[in-house]
Amino acid sequence: MAKLEASNTLKRLRNRYRLVIMNDDTYEEVVTFKLSRMSVYIGLSTIFVLLTGLTVALIIFTPLKMYIPGYGDATSTRELRELKMRTDSLQQAMNFKERYLENIKNVLEGDISVKKDTTALNIPVPEKTTD
Fold this sequence. Notes:
The protein is mainly alpha-helical and 131 residues long. 56% of the residues lie in helices and 11% in strands.
């Protein structure tokens, strides 16, 4: 029974069909194609494989690969890390200077409401001497 279904499917794949493109005004045949389901399947598969191959080749052999996240050469990733660290340190220095200028401004304006937090002080513990 399974053999009959397989042969029936194979027959349907090999049946020939005619695709005719006609001029709508004159009903003249412009182009005629003789196709089978298998030839259409093979043609579409070939086009898919070619387009996929061209896309992969375009990405691999052109600078487009640099736009893929996580892809790039080691020097650019190292430079990116260095720039990120430098940017972070500059941001931190800018925050310190901004706080310093804000404190200077408060002192010049006479707003000296400084709260001293003794828990933040690093008081050294005296060493025990053994006599």
